[in-house]
Design brief:
By secondary structure, the chain is an alpha/beta fold. It is about 45% helix and about 15% strand. The protein has a nine-stranded mixed beta sheet, with helices on both faces. Helix 10 crosses helix 12. The radius of gyration is 20 Å and the shape is globular.
């Protein structure tokens, strides 16, 4: 009678994701996707220090994802190389307000007016913004006016006027099947077909392209900086902002994504999607301390 449970156990073990821990790490659990092993925070940071840009994906309302971002930002802020935080959440035209915030030249009440005009969920993000202010870490607005993205999402890239295209630098946004499939996977396999889905993909591609352009523009003017880019998980995938960045310049980078079941998780993740997958959940799963 014991053979059946053993057989079931054997099947379950074969079906489990194959990755191994280098050591018995407690928290956080970070998967090195290329090697399919867990690595320590120290080894993660050692690799991140070899590159100029680190993309960290997030679910915007997930406080744990922002704790993970702050852990990396805080650790890299000790380096001799100056650090900046790139923000999907802020438009480039709000850069002056970001500079004044970091310089402690803008009271919280006034800054919140600018913040709420750009984004929401201050309680989820305030730790990162306060860290940047206290530690004098530059913050970069990478995004474009939301009305342009909405216009493309509803009417396609062709709906932009000549003036609007010129304002964007005459950027071209042609969605190929690979990008369309990437967007569908980033949405958890959802997404339709036809013109409306194409328009949605064009809006996402416009967003990725312009954030990459603004990032590259900053690094050309400030080549000594290392940048941690905070963006929605779909934008941070290698098919998103990173690919568009490489279209403009040869810049070293890494991608860290949080595990999201059904979208990118330990069962389906590949090195074409991300370099690292942050596996943790729970109160202690999204932070680390470096001694």
């Amino acid at each position: 009678m014991k053979t059946v449970p053993r057989l079931i156990l054997s099947i379950l073990l074969v079906a489990m994701p194959v990755f191994h821990s280098v050591e018995a790490f407690a928290h956080p659990h970070i998967l090195d996707v290329a090697r399919q092993v867990e690595i320590s925070p120290q080894n993660l940071l050692s690799d991140l220090r070899q590159v100029q840009v680190i993309f960290m994906g997030e679910f915007h309302d997930h406080v744990g994802h922002h704790r993970a971002q702050l852990s990396v930002i805080d650790a890299l802020d000790d380096d001799e190389r100056p650090l900046a935080i790139g923000l999907e959440m802020f438009r480039k035209d709000s850069q002056e307000s970001l500079d004044r915030w970091v310089d402690n030249d803008l009271p919280l009440e006034q800054f919140l007016e600018v913040y709420n005009d750009n984004w929401s969920m201050w309680r989820a993000y305030h730790g990162i913004f306060r860290h940047a202010r206290n530690a004098k870490v530059k913050m970069l607005g990478l995004n474009i006016p939301r009305q342009l993205t909405r216009k493309v999402a509803s009417g396609g890239f062709q709906s932009l006027s000549a003036e609007e295209r010129q304002m964007l630098g005459d950027v071209q946004c042609q969605v190929n099947p690979i990008y369309g499939n990437f967007i569908r996977q980033a949405m958890g396999g959802h997404g339709g077909h036809g013109s409306q889905y194409l328009f949605f993909c064009e809006a996402q591609l416009l967003w990725d392209t312009m954030m990459a352009h603004n990032l590259v523009e900053f690094l050309r003017e400030n080549p000594d900086y290392r940048v941690v880019v905070m963006a929605g998980s779909g934008h941070a995938w290698k098919f998103g902002i990173p690919r568009q960045m490489l279209e403009e310049a040869d810049i070293s980078y890494r991608v860290i994504l949080p595990e999201v079941l059904g979208r990118v998780d330990r069962r389906n993740v590949t090195r074409e999607i991300t370099d690292y997958l942050w596996l943790d959940e729970g109160e202690d799963g999204w932070v680390f301390s470096i001694e």
